[in-house]
Amino acid sequence: MASGGKRTPSNPAPVSGPGALSRRTDGGPGNAKQPIRVPTGGNYGDATQLQQDQQGAALGASPGGDVTPVGGSAGLLSSLQAPPGAGLDQGTQRPGEPVTAGAASGAGPGPEALGLPNQEADDVQQLAKYLPVFEYMANQPGSMAASRNLVRSIKGGM
């Protein structure tokens, strides 16, 4: 194995010049060949068609990862369709329900209609166990306003 001596880089420009004299040092898009990537999933024969399409098209060099299916199986973009539902130019499908239904304010049922547990109240109950420690920390000289606000919010949620 030889060591030392002049080494010529394989790319066209070893170092780029400043400003208007700058040149690509990676060889440019014509020298690098982008790998063919075919997603899994889809209908029978789609992968072969996509591979043939990519072989026939000139692809620009770009960094990219492998195509991996999302959620276990990915369909091809050509097989995606919009979900069924009302368009923006159509009337409402729920005429008796206010627009604010499900929101925390306004007419109609609020988030409590979902029947989810009140996570904020559960968190306050868990933090209340440590209230003496938080109060001690908040009463120290030079304590942060955030620690005092934490104590206030725990006491307010009890």
Reconstruct the topology from this structure:
Blueprint: H1 46-56, H2 119-128, H3 131-138, H4 145-157
Question: Summarize this, please?
Answer:
This protein has 158 residues and is an all-alpha fold. Helices cover 27% and strands 0% of the residues.
Description:
The protein is mainly alpha-helical and 158 residues long. It has a domain at 120-157. It is 27% helix and 0% strand. It has 4 helices and no strands. Helix 2 (119-128) packs across helix 4 (145-157) and helix 3 packs antiparallel against helix 4 (145-157). The model has no long low-confidence stretch (mean pLDDT 75).
Shape: flat
Radius of gyration: 31 Å
Share of helix, binned: 25-40%
Residue windows where pLDDT falls under 50 for at least 5 positions: none
Can you write the helix and strand succession as a string? HHHH
- Count all strands and give the number: 0
Count every helix, treating DSSP H or I runs of 4 or more residues as helices: 4
Approximately how much beta-strand content do the residues carry? under 5%
Q: Pairing-aware structural class of the strands and helices?
A: mainly alpha
Roughly what is the average pLDDT, rounded to an integer? 75
Largest sheet, if any? none
Describe this protein with a few key phrases.
158 residues; mainly alpha; 4 helices; flat
